Amino acid sequence: MTVATTSADAQALKDALARLAATPRLLVALDFDGTVSPLVDNPSDSRVLPEARAALTELERMPDTWFAFVSGRPLANLVRVTEADDEVLLIASHGVEVRLEGGAVDVGLDDDEQARLAALSARLDAIVARTPGSKLEHKPVGLGLHTRGVPAEAAARADEAARDAAREVGGTFLERAGKDILEFSVRDATKGDGLQRLRRHVDATGMLFAGDDVTDEDGFAALGHDDIGIKVGQGETRARFRVADPDAVAGLLSQLVSLRRR
Ligand SMILES: O=P(O)(O)OC[C@H]1O[C@H](O[C@H]2O[C@H](CO)[C@@H](O)[C@H](O)[C@H]2O)[C@H](O)[C@@H](O)[C@@H]1O
């Protein structure tokens, strides 16, 4: 993948990182898939790149410095793939599930939400059965139809059928199209809500947030003037900066560690 950035952009990012490294209370919040972990066919195989992991471990040890994963994955799944210890702050299910110090909140679906999810799940199962290579992911507040590796036309047909199914079930489903995944949720929190929650929790004076997907745009929208938003890869974005891939994110995290150590 090529991502066009000029040397002026690269210098501006370097300068912004140096300023952020000097902030009194620093929060580093990272999307997981496609940001610190390269995209892979089987979601349970995803892991944080070693360089990023080393940098995050260093950040965790520094005073007045916190890091968090902010992901669309369910919380239990996110804990497993990130191998996060109990200290790591986690925002999961696109902002619905939150684990700050003191444990996670219970999402507690009501009867109507449970019934609508069950009805949609049955319909999506039928779509998966006739779409080889697709998979249905069950999440605490929604369902994700995965089509990675499915030929484009068949994937588009499956997505369209899934949208029809959600309309048939009725009520409000928040629809999110990500990378080879179409999700339907009965709750409407966003990663932006998650970042605000984290900012308040640690009383951050500066924040870095990096993400690669459309749902990360809600996160970029929640950033302030003294924060840094980094889009990973191609696509439209409101982030101020852009890097090519998870390796580049890992490199930036290492730079941030060195700068903050100083
Ligand atoms: O917010 P994120 O941390 O980026 O999570 C978004 C979704 O990530 C996972 O799916 C994506 O990554 C998989 C592994 O690389 C890939 O196989 C899939 O095609 C991608 O859509 C995860 O499985 C989903 O639950 C997340 O919503």
Automatic annotation (TrEMBL):
This is Trehalose 6-phosphate phosphatase. GO terms for molecular function: metal ion binding; trehalose-phosphatase activity. InterPro entries: HAD-like_sf, HAD-SF_hydro_IIB, HAD_sf, OTSB-like, Trehalose_PPase. Gene3D superfamilies: HAD superfamily/HAD-like, Trehalose-6-phosphate phosphatase related protein, domain 2. Its EC number is 3.1.3.12. Belongs to the trehalose phosphatase family. Transmembrane segments: none annotated. It is an enzyme of class 3 (hydrolase). Pathway: Glycan biosynthesis; trehalose biosynthesis. The keyword Lipid metabolism does not apply. It catalyses: alpha,alpha-trehalose 6-phosphate + H2O = alpha,alpha-trehalose + phosphate. Keywords: Hydrolase, Magnesium, Metal-binding. One of its GO terms (biological process) is trehalose biosynthetic process. Removes the phosphate from trehalose 6-phosphate to produce free trehalose.
